[in-house]
Amino acid sequence: MYMAAAAAVVPPSGEAAAFKLGFIGAGNLAESIARGVAKSSVLPPSSIRTAHRRPDRRAVFQSFGVRIFDSNAQVVDDSDVVIISVKPQAVKHVLLELRPFFTEEKLLVSIAAGIKMKDLQEWSGQRRLIRVMPNTPSAVGQAASVMCMGEMATKKDEERVASLFSAIGRVWKADEKYFDAITGLSGSGPAYVYLAIEALADGGVAAGLPRDLALGLATQTVLGAAAMVGGTGKHPGQLKDEVTSPAGTTIAGIQELERGAFRGTLINAVVAATKRCRELSQT
Ligand SMILES: NC(=O)c1ccc[n+]([C@@H]2O[C@H](COP(=O)([O-])OP(=O)(O)OC[C@H]3O[C@@H](n4cnc5c(N)ncnc54)[C@H](OP(=O)(O)O)[C@@H]3O)[C@@H](O)[C@H]2O)c1
After folding, report:
1. Nearest 5 degrees, angle CA 37-CA 43-CA 45?
2. Ligand 1 centre from 83 Cα, in Å?
3. How are the residues of the chain apportioned to helix, strand and coil, as percentages rounded to the nearest 5?
4. pLDDT digits (tens, 9 = 90+) for 164-212
5. Are 157 and 151 a contacting pair, CB within 8 Å?
6. Is residue 123 within 8 Å of residue 95, measured between CB atoms?
């Protein structure tokens, strides 16, 4: 689902979907996106292309129908939308090298964490740009992705990119000034939740449960609680109140969480990660 300001849903078919998609950097995230796109029929795998110096990475993409080219330049040349999916430290070098192959008809999309639009534009010479920040649950089709539009990107470009990233989860649109905070929340957030799941399971073990059962219950409880917030549209505070009976078990647990500054700690974690992201993108 694609959430713009008014939560518009972009249909994953039609004119916006008929294009060729190239990946520069056939790594983990490119693989998740390509698999999601091919599986959801946003594009047939034959419309996706990439190149890689390592045979094992070429074989992975080839195994689900992606076309493999000999060079990055060929990928750019034969794509309408080019996703830059190399590590952030390689982006400048790769874009400077590919600069002669970009034309005004092509859309450049960057998923590189911390690389700003103005640098992408300067290195590639391309003004038709969209920057996207996905997160690691893209591997299981549950990414939270945020996109921001470059000055020359069109409505059709927006729809195309929204349809691509809708194939691996949910998509929002936001101004670039929010990207450090987005990294601090949804970029780093999966790790905070992994810690929470591990700690809940440890609590179950401390209370006498077998490890497997404790981990399964902790995982499903987090999944179920997230689905309740997303599915009912109720504020999480209201859902919490609804399961918290007077002098009951849940309020006893919550009291202990508050003693450990649970909410304040999570708030501070997002703020600290945002600050660190800002520092890193300045150096
Ligand atoms: N993983 C996520 O969920 C996530 C979330 C948000 C943003 N991102 C961003 O997504 C980008 C990719 O992350 P990733 O986790 O997918 O990294 P990755 O698995 O390391 O993928 C990068 C790939 O690019 C290849 N590569 C390096 N230099 C290249 C070049 N000159 N030409 C073509 N390919 C080249 C690498 O090959 P070698 O391994 O052989 O060097 C590797 O296969 C990063 O910029 C990251 O900030 C990732």
Report:
1. 80
2. 11
3. 55, 15, 30
4. 999 999 999 999 999 999 999 999 999 999 999 999 999 999 999 999 9
5. no
6. yes
Q: Which of 179, 209, 238 is the last residue of a domain?
A: 179
From 24, 29, 98, give the residue whose CB has the most ligand 1 atoms within 8 Å, as the site to mutate. Answer: 29
CB proximity list for 119: less than 8 A, separation 6 or greater: 91, 92
Residue 116 corresponds to which tokens in the numbers above?
């700003």
Specify whether 23 is located in the same domain as 155.
yes
Flag whether 26 is marked binding. yes
The pLDDT tens digits of the residues spanning 46-90 come to 999 999 999 999 999 999 999 999 999 999 999 999 999 999 999
Same domain for 267 and 129: no
CB 163 within 8 A of CB 187: no
Containing structural domain, residue 264: 187-282
Domain count, the chain: 2
pTM of the predicted protein model: 0.91
Ligand 1 pocket test, pick from 32, 61, 86 with the greatest ligand atom count within 8 Å of Cβ, gives 86
Q: What angle do CA 169, 173, 178 make, to 5 degrees?
A: 110
The DSSP result for 56-69, as a single string, is HHHHHHHTTT-EE-
Ligand 1 binding pocket, CB closer than 6 Å: 24-30, 52, 54, 57, 72, 85-88, 90, 94, 111-113, 133-136, 138, 187
CB of 159 closer than 8 Å to CB of 10: yes
Give the distance (Å) from ligand 1 centre to CA of residue 222.
Answer: 29
Helices and strands in the chain, H and E counts: 12, 9
What pLDDT was estimated at residue 9?
A: 36
Q: What DSSP character marks residue 176?
A: G
Question: By C-alpha distance, which of 159, 186, 165, 160 is closest to 37?
Answer: 165
